[in-house]
Amino acid sequence: MRKPGASTQCVHLGSKTDPATRSMTTPIIENSAYAYDDLETWRAVALKEKSGDIYSRNSNPTVRAFNEKMALLEGAESATDFSTGMAAINTALFALLSPGSRAVTIKDAYGATYLHFTEILPRFGVQCEVCETGDEAAILAAIGKGCDLLYLETPTNPLLRVVDLEKLIAAAHEVGAVTITDNTFGTPVNQHPIQLGSDLVVHSATKFINGHNDVTAGVVCGSADLVEKIYRYRELTGPCLDAHRASLLLRSLKTLALRVQRQNDNALQMALYLEKHPRVLQVNYPGLESHPMHAIARKQMPGGFGGVLSFEIEGGLEAVSRVLPRLQYAALAANLGQVDTVVGPPSTTSHVECTEEERRAAGIPEGLIRYAVGIEDIQDLMEDMEQALAIL
Questions:
Q1: Is 108 known to be catalytic?
Q2: Both 209 and 312 in a single domain?
Q3: Residues pairing with 128 in the sheet
Q4: Which of these is catalytic: 36, 55, 57, 384?
Q5: Domain count of the chain?
């Protein structure tokens, strides 16, 4: 029997009828503590000698169902939940790094992630080397010096740059490093970093995983031993997911493939349209043949190239501030991956925490617009973009 398709996996993986209620939908267990009839059983569950729950900061049946489904979709042994995407990233880094550790990453990481490597981790004695994303030789050289952790993001936010996961991860494993890949833009529909060798995958589940702008969440998937280390740190520090949000995420995962496939198509068509527009200086989208890493993206993103693109227009931030309010079918907001299109410059979205100088150093022009495509009819979106850019 052939491997099921993406939509079948999103609907059925990890889904089962609840044995107590016969409900097809995972029940929402809104509960803090779980009661036991005797101390022996309670202690055994607390020590993980028996399955069960004792306190919802540690585990919860609804949240566990979300973790199990995410692990299956990513092809991972295990997964653990977080209240936000940055909680997932922060916890993974602090669970795996110690004073004296050495970490390598790329400059094009999401703004808050970038600041972890340039501001936060060095304060705790972690040596961090941040490499130019497009300089593969420099990244390999940094790894070759020896490192404990390699952190990658592909496609990147907001420049949509792509790195060769297989090559960089293999180099990191040669020096004994743990590898983490942010797959938020890729999604389990388009890209599977674990199949390409990554030890761990992180998501801001607020984005495509949820897709409806009504949840903030994060998740880390990967090998059971590494996820257990991260879970232990999360258990002690407390940034866990609650049952209600886990239920919303489980709902959203059933339509993940449908949404992402539509967003893939819309983003590619919008990128092709913008590439020909006379007021657009540059379009960043890995699905374009003009993208410098298009061949790598085609190889490691077999499901599609994602629902986010960015483009630079003439006139810098002043022009951006005139164009964006004219859009009728795009909300000016800091989210992405939802069913409705959202748009904004990096100075108010991905790199709002960074200064203009830091954005410039990262190669992000002030005239850049990040456009996260929804599931609307693409003709409507293109006509909307045409009338908005006409002001230039």
A1: no
A2: no
A3: 103
A4: 57
A5: 2
Give residue 307's identity as a one-letter amino acid code. Answer: G
DSSP string, 167-224: HHHHHHHHTT-EEEEE-TTTHHHH--TTTTT-SEEEEETTTTTT-SSS---EEEEE-H
Same domain, 90 and 121: yes
**CA angle (251 as vertex; 74, 234 as ends), nearest 5:** 55
Q: Which of 182, 285, 370, 371 is catalytic?
A: 182
- Strand 102-106 versus strand 127-131 pairing type: parallel
Q: In angstroms, how far apart are the furthest CA atoms of the chain?
A: 74
Identify whether residues 384 and 241 lie together within a single domain.
Answer: no
DSSP 103-155: EEEETTS-HHHHHIIIIIHHHTT-EEEEE-TT-HHHHHHHHHT--SEEEEESS
- Residue 173: inside a domain: yes
Q: How far apart are CA 352 and CA 202, in angstroms?
A: 21
49: containing domain: 6-253
Reading the block at residue 391, the tokens are 């002001």
- Residue 299, SS3 per DSSP: helix
Mark whether 136 and 241 lie in a shared domain.
Answer: yes
- Catalytic annotation present for 326: no
Return the pLDDT at 358: 77
Is there a catalytic annotation at residue 110? yes
Would the pLDDT of 288 be above 80?
yes
* Amino acid in the structure at residue 194: I
DSSP-assigned beta bridge partners for residue 102: 127
pLDDT band at 231 (very low <50, low <70, confident <90, very high): very high
State the first-to-last Cα distance of the chain, in angstroms, to the nearest integer.
55
Compute how many other C-beta atoms are within 10 angstroms of the C-beta atom of residue 43.
Answer: 13
Q: Which of 214, 230, 253 corresponds to the end of one domain? A: 253
pLDDT in tens, 33-89: 999 999 999 999 999 999 999 999 999 999 999 999 999 999 999 999 999 999 999
pTM equals 0.95
- H or E element, residue 356: helix 356-361
CATH of the domain at 380: 3.90.1150.10
Q: Verify whether residue 207 is a known catalytic residue.
A: yes
What is the per-residue pLDDT across 174-217, written as a single tens digit (0 to 9) for each? 999 999 999 999 999 999 999 999 999 999 999 999 999 999 99
> Which residue is catalytic, options 64, 102, 107, 207?
207
CATH number for the domain that contains residue 68: 3.40.640.10
Using the 3D structure, point to which of 208, 238, 253 is the last residue of a domain: 253
